[in-house]
Amino acid sequence: MHTLYILWCAVLGLVAAIELTFELPDNANQCFYEDMKAGIDSVIEFQVVTGGKYDVDMTLEDPSGKVLYKDVKKQYDSYSWKTAIDGTYKACFSNEFSTFTHKIVYMDWQKGNEGLLKTTPRLAAMSQLETSASGISDRLRLIDDYQTHHRLREATGRKRAEELNERVMLWSLGQTCVILLIGVAQVLLLRSFFTEKRTTF
């Protein structure tokens, strides 16, 4: 049991993640920083949940200022890389092209080094129970990712449905007003046909 606890702590220590949802105002640029050592596998993933045309600019830079990833007006994307140098990596999200719509953006920055699991001598010879625990941990992490993506899609779909519902309601109110005006105009026109015009002598 003690060995299983040590294995679990080692697996949790190998993989770290930053997962957050933040608001990006119009004409704004927001950056996030992460200190990492060289040779670490990392994945950054983002998705615009609500706002405007659901797009955002994203730039990823290494500590020397070299641009590792840059894309404009993306709704969602994922980028994987292996760190080349030690230092602070920077991920910036920009909404500067938008003049009046703020956005809500989801970001998931995972960093971990799977290679350490192979180099540790004690962890190399795992029992069947330890292997099962490691497999369950991987599957739980995968399930958590699926649930997060499902929640994001649900939130995006709900927001679009609410916007569509509001537009349909406004269109329906406009149509109702037009129908009432046409009805009143028709009644007045029909009354004018049947009213006698008085002639004066």
Provide a concise account of the structure shown.
It is built from four helices and eight strands; from the N terminus they run H-E-E-E-E-E-E-E-E-H-H-H.
Relevant terms:
alpha+beta; Jelly Rolls; 2 domains; elongated; disordered N terminus
Explain what you see.
It contains four helices and eight strands. It has 201 residues and is α+β, with helices and mostly antiparallel strands. It folds into two domains: 102 residues, Jelly Rolls (Sandwich), CATH 2.60.120; 61 residues. A four-stranded antiparallel beta sheet has the order 1-8-3-6. A four-stranded antiparallel beta sheet has the order 2-7-4-5, with no helix packed on it. Helix 1 crosses helix 4. The longest helix has 67 residues. The N terminus is likely disordered.
* Percentage of residues in strands: 25-35%
Q: How many domains comprise the coordinates?
A: 2
Helix content: 40-55%
What order do the strands of the largest sheet run in, or round the barrel if closed?
1-8-3-6
Shape: elongated
Family: Belongs to the EMP24/GP25L family.
Protein name: Transmembrane emp24 domain-containing protein 7
Pfam family, one: EMP24_GP25L
Organism: Ascaris suum (Pig roundworm)
Topology summary:
Blueprint: H1 2-14, E1 15-24, E2 29-36, E3 41-50, E4 56-61, E5 67-74, E6 76-82, E7 87-94, E8 103-112, H2 115-119, H3 121-124, H4 128-194
